[in-house]
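Handout, page 2. Input:
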Amino acid sequence: MSTHFEMFNQFITKYVEFSDAELLDLNKKCSKVAFPKGAIIMKAGEVQKNLFFITKGIIRNYVDNNKGEIKIYDFRSESMTVTGYALYNYEEKFKALVNVECLEDCIMIQVPLDVINYVINHMKLGDRLGRYMAEAHVVQMLHYVIQRDTKTIIERLESIDHNFPNIHQRVPQYMIASYLGITPVHLSNLKKKRKLTKK
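Output:
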């Protein structure tokens, strides 16, 4: 088994106890895919067809607002799932709410939505896995909103540094500033101030 699927299986078994046979069955229904830096793998307003699990690389979730501005809502990196925040555990076709762009060359496990429905409907603990994953994404977005409204910019900067080690070497600073809701100049000043404080 490849390292990529091993990472995928370790992620799954954090939530539920699938048998080796169930994991093998699931793995056979999924595929390892590579995307180049800059690839848009989901577009807001289009039907979401897959869920992804990152084994290498980092992505951003973003929207274009009605003023022509790009607003970044999330970054996702190794051992994290990627979704367009559409509902992926139902038969109906739901459209993605955000765009998903690769910020590095990425390798992912692609999980078609019909496979997710198969897991939920035919595997012993599949419904629990689907529920846990859906809840995780809801909690994550709620966490973003609460942090934005209650934490200082310094606290939010510390949080992103904790959740994404080396993000400042992997992601352009203007994107991190967009996520924080500040200008790149403001971000640069905050980082300088933090360095002085630590000294």
